[in-house]
Design goal:
This protein has 402 residues and is an alpha/beta fold. A hairpin with a 5-residue loop joins strand 5 and strand 6.
């Protein structure tokens, strides 16, 4: 049964001054709130390894933020901002990034009403010769309000990934209320970012340094990665009073067969770094159920976890995924998820969560509440009283599931 949840019950007073507009000079110098069984304690993030159990499994999201925001101008001088969300032709990320002459993407279009289907030229106010040599143009193929399918064409044989690196800017969150700056190129990216495709960073990972990662491994903690590409929907507020009326966006992910085997046989806690890692890991159970019942892993739809009782164990579901990969001769499980994690959700894989402090009335607050069995206000009240910094560049927390 789909839970009846009113988003207003997940509001709290967040003043603009509490939102961290810039990162601290040192990644691991942020505060760290530790929540366990209703009790809150305060540390510094570089102390995180001391709070983790030896021999645990820690899972990171190694997606990489792409500089997906491009600025164009019309012949009239009007400026149009185009924010690339996901590839349409070619549809696969790596292939689209490797394209050398043209590619089409689903995009958010700023100032969309002023674009009358004419060809746009890349805005180049500094008259940079390398930018001019690209000859990057944009044509609108399909329009849907503020979004649409845009076809990009360019010259000089560069891959589209290189075009974005040269001409694009990092799409920092809108609640920072500023333009992207040079510091964001480095700091709005995790140290372990590897696979291009996200338009927002998995921000829980921004606090990790090489020193912290080394100390985690020294404790015998097994560090693994998944890859979920974070979409722009992560910034979308819940506009309906009833959460059941809020549509979740699809996000693609990849999980290795090796990690599935490790999860299937685990006897130690699983620590997820970030809500994106949680959503990926918890989606695996329902993909496994699909394998058990149909023979194939289907994308996980938004309310699947709540619509019926599931008789299968987590080990059975994960084993079904491994057997599917073996049958198909695959090393990686590729899928997508729209899963929403709200109070009442049954966590089957994740035991601990490293995460930042999220916006009021957001789906991420709902996830945190589900994880701590409704005790999210204890955490957020403490953070507000003790001058924690909030949102993407803010401080961190380590939450232990109740």
């Amino acid at each position: 049964m789909i839970p009846e949840i009113h988003i207003e019950d997940y509001n709290y007073g967040l003043e603009d001054a509490r939102i961290a507009k810039y990162p601290l000079p040192e990644r691991d110098a942020s505060k760290l709130l530790h929540y366990k069984d209703g009790t809150v304690n305060e540390f510094v993030f570089r102390q995180l390894p001391d709070l983790l159990p030896e021999g645990a499994l820690m899972v990171f999201n190694d997606t990489k933020v792409v500089p997906a925001r491009l600025h164009f101008e019309r012949e009239t001088g009007a400026h149009i901002e185009i924010f690339c969300l996901e590839p349409v032709r070619p549809v696969e990320y790596n292939t689209a990034f490797a394209a050398t002459e043209t590619t089409s993407w689903k995009c958010v279009i700023g100032n969309a009403k002023k674009w009358k289907n004419d060809v746009l030229h890349l805005y180049n106010p500094e008259n940079r010769a390398d930018i001019a040599a690209l000859g990057l143009e944009a044509r609108l193929e399909q329009r849907d309000g503020q979004t649409g399918v845009v076809r990009f064409t360019w010259k000089d044989g560069a891959a589209f990934s290189r075009v974005l690196e040269m001409a694009g800017t990092v799409p920092i969150p809108p609640y920072l209320n500023r333009e992207s700056e040079q510091i964001d190129t480095e700091r709005y990216q995790t140290l372990y970012a590897h696979i291009r495709g996200s338009v927002a960073a998995p921000t829980a990972g921004l606090h990790f340094t090489e020193e912290v990662l080394a100390r985690i491994r020294e404790k015998g903690i097994d560090t693994r990665t998944v890859c979920l590409h974070v979409g722009a929907g992560t910034f979308l507020p819940v506009k309906s009073s009833l959460v059941s009326e809020h549509p979740m966006h699809r996000e693609p992910f990849v999980v290795s067969r090796e990690l599935l085997e490790r999860l299937k046989t685990r006897k130690t806690p699983v620590i997820a770094v970030g809500t994106t890692s949680v959503r990926t890991l918890e989606s695996l159970y329902y993909m496994g159920v699909s394998c058990l019942e149909t023979g194939f892993p289907a994308d996980v739809e938004q309310w699947v976890p709540y619509t019926r009782a599931y008789p299968y164990s987590t080990e059975e579901a994960l084993d079904a995924l491994v057997r599917y990969l073996d049958r198909e001769g695959l090393e990686n499980l590729v899928g997508g998820t729209r899963i929403i994690i709200v109070p009442g959700f049954t966590f089957r894989i994740v035991d601990r969560l490293v995460t930042n402090f999220h916006q009021p009335e957001s789906t991420l607050i709902l996830l945190v509440s589900a994880f701590v069995k409704g005790d999210w206000r204890t955490i957020y009240d403490y953070a507000l009283r003790h001058d924690f910094r909030f949102l993407s560049y803010g401080d961190s927390s380590l939450l232990e599931r109740r």
